[in-house]
Specification:
With 262 residues, this protein is of the alpha/beta class. Helices cover 40% and strands 10% of the residues. The protein has two domains: 93 residues, no CATH class; 166 residues, SGNH hydrolase (Rossmann fold), CATH 3.40.50. It is globular, with a radius of gyration of 18 Å.
Amino acid sequence: MNRWARLLLLGCLSVMVTANDARGANAPDLGMLRPRTGGQLYVQRVASLRAGQLYSRILPGTFANQWQATWQQPTYEQWQTLLAHEAAMMTAQQGQSPLTVLVGDSLYLWLPQETLPSDRLWLNQSISGETTAYMVQRLHYFSQIRPNVIYVMAGVNDLKHGAAPAIVVSNLELIAQRLRMQHPQTRIVMLSILPTRWPSVPTPMVRQVNGQLAIAVRRRGVEFIDLQTAFSDRQGLLRADLTTDGLHLNPQGYSLLTAYLR
């Protein structure tokens, strides 16, 4: 058992993982199975870490014997601890491989890793439901890695919970500033907030934030990519063919998003 496995067993991460080993990873239907809940995804990633494997390198159904029966949802603190350990493992295993980091909320968390280009390593540092104010506080988790690119996409949860556009822009600019200081040689890209079909996140507000955000992050030396045109219908709402619930993406939506991460 490697160093990271011992740390997990000693910490809060281990409470949701069964004692089964990874023999289930040899099942023939790994490409068909995949976690469907946050608890299942969390257990799969903990199991991967315990086995000394990078989560972004496993098949979707790996460790199914450990995560399929999971019902308990991890806490925010458990997700934080998991991301910190995954970043530490990446620091130890990266070597000379190119690396791309994703920082965001559920829209990035559920990005199918098997659709990402295999010519590099990927580190997904995203937590479902997280706001930008909390995201700012955990950027140091991956301060020791050497990424070639960092993609950031966040802010929709802030708007969903009633945050003022100016606060969202300020927090995202702070994220851009800290990442630029933390990784001066890295290409850092801020993606715009996606449109939604939810009345609580109206299109004019999303456009306002994205317009201000483009100016704010560029003055911090960070690139900005506007996704609004590609993801919007004629009314400015998230295209119905790209979403499961008006906010989150379906496979077609993720296929389009992945095109911007290449």
